[in-house]
């Protein structure tokens, strides 16, 4: 933002202070920062048009618009929920994949009379259980934070809950990847098993950082 | 009118100013201030998370719009938003009617 548009460096300084205070998914955070900085710039311009110099306009704009701390405090709730929804979305869309891999591999091995070892089957059942519960929990979190939040209050500890759910799903995916790698050595369809292991590892890599970010979010505050 | 008094009604105010058509954030702020005659003491920056929340709840939809070199997010009411606004108006009328009947009773009815 240049000084020529009537807003100037004050807007850049406001935007930078504001951005530093927010935690959340990059895209949602960038959108809020852009919108808020744009609104602040408009407010500064309005005071400039009323005859104030840049410093005076910036002071009055901040008094009217809210300090970066005030505005960030009211925005953080939305960013926290954006992180919850992002993590829940990643878990809901990836957790069923290892489940599907184990199922398809079981089918393929059975067809060839070379069913995976008992230990692999037991492990698959356990991991499938964890992944299934995580996927259902994630879907529930998406529902509670979406349209239903008009009527339902969002639990304050939801970020923790979804973060740990994601961590559990991510652990199940890592376990699945490891087990599939070992099973690949024993299975008839070893390239298929190895591919499923790679897919599980990729899912783990997608879920783990998001789950960690979700656990680090503050608890959900009441709406402003 | 202090911000505390406005809290609880902000969603209705935002939905109402978008009834006539899409607006971007600052235009929504100025529309609320203009319609209220400047009587509402709002920290105007706090309407942005409220707009995000209403969008998440399906009451608003938004798109980026470019005007020259500027890119702005423009908000519009969804069908659910129109229904939500009608509901809030009905609640507000019932509320003001009930409170008004107590605070400012018609002559002869204050028993």
From TrEMBL, chain B:
SUPFAM superfamilies linked to this entry: Winged helix' DNA-binding domain
Domain Transcription regulator PadR N-terminal: 14-87
Pfam families: PadR
Coiled coil residues, start to end: none
Leader sequence residues: none
Name of this chain's protein: PadR family transcriptional regulator
Organism taxonomic ancestry: Bacteria, Bacillati, Actinomycetota, Actinomycetes, Kitasatosporales
């Amino acid at each position: 933002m240049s000084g020529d548009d009537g807003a100037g460096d004050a807007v850049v300084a406001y935007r930078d202070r504001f951005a530093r205070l927010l935690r959340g998914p990059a895209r949602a955070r960038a959108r809020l920062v852009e919108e808020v900085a744009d609104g602040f710039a408009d407010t500064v311009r309005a005071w400039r048009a009323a005859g104030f110099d840049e410093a005076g306009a910036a002071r009055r704009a901040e008094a009217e618009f809210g300090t970066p701390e005030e505005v960030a405090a009211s925005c953080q709730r939305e960013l926290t929920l954006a992180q919850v929804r992002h993590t829940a979305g990643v878990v809901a869309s990836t957790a069923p994949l290892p489940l599907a891999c184990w199922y398809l591999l079981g089918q393929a091995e059975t067809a060839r009379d070379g069913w995976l070892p008992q230990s692999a089957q037991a492990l698959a059942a356990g991991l499938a259980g964890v992944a299934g519960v995580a996927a259902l929990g994630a879907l529930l979190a998406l529902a509670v934070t979406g349209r239903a939040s008009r009527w339902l209050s969002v639990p304050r500890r939801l970020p923790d809950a979804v973060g740990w759910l994601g961590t559990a799903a991510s652990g199940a995916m890592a376990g699945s990847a490891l087990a599939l790698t070992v099973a690949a050595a024993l299975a008839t369809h070893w390239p298929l098993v190895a591919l499923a292991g790679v897919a599980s590892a990729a899912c783990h890599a997608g879920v783990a950082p998001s789950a960690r970010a979700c656990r680090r979010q503050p608890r959900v505050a009441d709406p402003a | 009118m202090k911000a505390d008094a406005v809290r609880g009604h902000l969603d209705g105010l935002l939905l109402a100013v978008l009834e006539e058509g899409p607006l971007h954030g600052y235009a929504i702020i100025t529309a609320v201030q203009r319609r209220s005659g400047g009587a509402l003491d709002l920290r105007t920056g706090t309407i942005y998370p409220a707009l995000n929340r209403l969008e998440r709840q399906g009451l608003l939809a938004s798109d980026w719009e470019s005007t020259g070199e500027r890119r702005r997010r423009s908000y519009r009411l969804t069908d659910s938003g129109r229904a939500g606004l009608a509901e809030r108006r009905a609640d507000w009328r019932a509320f003001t009617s009930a409170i008004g009947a107590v605070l400012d009773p018609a002559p002869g009815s204050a028993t």
